[in-house]
Amino acid sequence: MSTKDKVKKSDPSSAGARKEKRAGSTRPANSRDVGQALRSVYQKTVDEAVPSEMLDLLGKLG
Asked: Mean pLDDT across the stretch 33-61?
């Protein structure tokens, strides 16, 4: 194998080189589904009202 062949194999611009991943563009559908489910659950939790019993307990602490 000549030096030229070795350089060609390790050249990142060659046809067999690994493609760079773009952020979020190649994620599988199930990964997006999990992300959406987590965002949905988080938003529901944030929107949930604080129970009056918890507010009473917090008031006693302060």
From this structure: 96
Cβ neighbours for 24, distance < 8 A, ≥ 6 positions apart = none
Structural domain containing residue 43 = 32-60
- Split at pLDDT 50, 70, 90, the class of 29 is confident
Cα 41–Cα 30–Cα 45 angle in degrees, nearest 5: 5
10 token code pair: 């390790």
Domain total in the chain: 1
- Return d(Cα 17, Cα 11) in angstroms, integer: 8
Mean pLDDT of 14-36: 69
Is 16 within the bounds of a domain?
A: no
